[in-house]
Amino acid sequence: MRNKYWMVVASLIIAVAGIAAAVILLNQGKAKPQDSENINPESINTETRQPIKASTSDDYTMPEEVFMQTMHEMTHQKVKADTKWGFTPMTEEQIDKMLTILEYNDYEHEEFYREALTAWKNGDFSNAVKVHNKIWKWQGGTIGKATGLLSREEEEEYLEHQTEKSFSQSGRN
């Protein structure tokens, strides 16, 4: 009788420990709800209405090939070329992000990137053809060399086309 009692107690302890372990494992990685009173309104992305993630150096680690391709794609809204593959909007936020990425990485062409991005940050896009073609050459480009800058109207049309393309590819049209 006494052995039976201890077997039941041991079984209950093992069962409770197993349930506790399962609950802990199931809750790992789940985000805790944020207290809305503690969210600074300035830390909310106005487009997505989501809190802006705090940045760490890991957020800015990027291979130079990816950085170079992103800059190349940014120039597409400013330059005339027969063929353009890829598009990254050249926004103030994107330019700032690229400048920050430069701070966290050691790139072979860092000075070139910094000069181009600084000019863009200051509203000077006159170097876009040079930037496009230099990166295009580094990447071994044979099709799609930039031949000039787009007019404001051509740029707006290009951006509109990219927006339409983005919506149609995501199924939101």
Features:
two-stranded antiparallel sheet, 6 helices, DUF6241, mainly alpha, 173 residues
Describe what you observe in this structure.
The chain has a domain at 57-170. The protein has 6 helices and 2 strands. The protein has helices at residues 2-27, 64-75, 92-104, 110-121, 128-138, 152-170, and strands at 79-81, 146-149. The protein starts with a helix and ends with a helix.
Q: What sort of overall outline do the alpha carbons produce when their principal axes are compared?
A: elongated
- Rounded to an integer in angstroms, the radius of gyration calculated over CA atoms is 26 Å
The string of secondary-structure elements, in order, is HHEHHHEH
**Helix fraction by DSSP (H/I, runs of at least 4):** 40-55%
Tally of individual helices: 6
Strand order within the widest beta sheet: 1-2
Structural class: mainly alpha
Q: In angstroms, what separates the terminal alpha carbons?
A: 73 Å
* Fraction of residues in β-strands: under 5%
The largest pleated sheet is described as: 2 strands, antiparallel
What average pLDDT do the residues reach? Answer: 79
Secondary structure: number of strands: 2
Ranges where pLDDT stays below 50 over 5 or more residues in a row are: 29-54
